Structure to design on (198 residues):
């Protein structure tokens, strides 16, 4: 659970939340983040604005839930004992497999980033959520790889991988013929080779 995750819900409330998140995702994909209102989300979901406030504190909470649901970290299962090159190959596979979904969500994700960059409170919430994700991922890497297998400390490595993956995914969405699966695979292969050679 990240800092932006809501408390666990079940039953009818969970279904309502899922419908609202899905409606928000559709609208943000169509219009961008700034041009999507709570009224629009409620109408798309076939609900009232009160349904939103019954499930989310405000617009930011709804959209953080949407981002968490639609732009989760790309993280293949790590196999304890596998070497770094194997992990990089699996990460490349996972990024390539995620491209169609990420491409469909790219407009919404990019517009959310612009919003976060221009609203300090949201930027702080995103930073807190990312910090928790990085902490958990670094723990997983330390458990999966032998000591010294990473080229840099695990905490720095997961932040660098996040930046690399998001950069590749956004550039693929923008220019799929220039940054396609072969380029993505080559990036992870080169990283694995450079680490092995070091």
């Amino acid at each position: 659970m990240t800092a932006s995750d809501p408390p666990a819900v079940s039953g009818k409330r969970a279904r309502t939340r899922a419908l609202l998140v899905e409606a928000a995702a559709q609208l943000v994909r169509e219009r961008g983040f700034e041009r999507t209102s709570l009224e629009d989300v409620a109408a798309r979901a076939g609900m009232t604005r009160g349904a939103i406030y019954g499930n989310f504190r405000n617009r930011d909470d709804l959209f953080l839930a949407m981002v968490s649901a639609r732009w989760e970290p790309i993280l293949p299962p790590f196999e304890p004992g596998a070497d770094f090159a194997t992990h990089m190959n699996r990460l490349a596979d996972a990024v390539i497999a995620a491209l169609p979904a990420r491409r469909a969500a790219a407009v919404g994700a990019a517009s959310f980033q612009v919003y976060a960059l221009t609203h300090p409170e949201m930027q702080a919430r995103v930073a807190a959520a990312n910090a928790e994700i990085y902490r958990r991922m670094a723990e997983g890497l330390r458990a999966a790889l032998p000591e010294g297998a990473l080229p840099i400390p695990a905490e720095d490595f997961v932040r660098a991988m996040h930046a690399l993956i998001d950069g590749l995914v956004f550039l693929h969405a923008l220019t799929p013929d220039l940054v396609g699966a072969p380029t993505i695979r080559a990036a992870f292969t080169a990283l694995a080779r450079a680490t092995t050679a070091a």
Observations:
- Residues 1-7 have pLDDT under 50 and may be disordered.
- The radius of gyration is 18 Å.
- The first helix runs from residue 11 to 31.
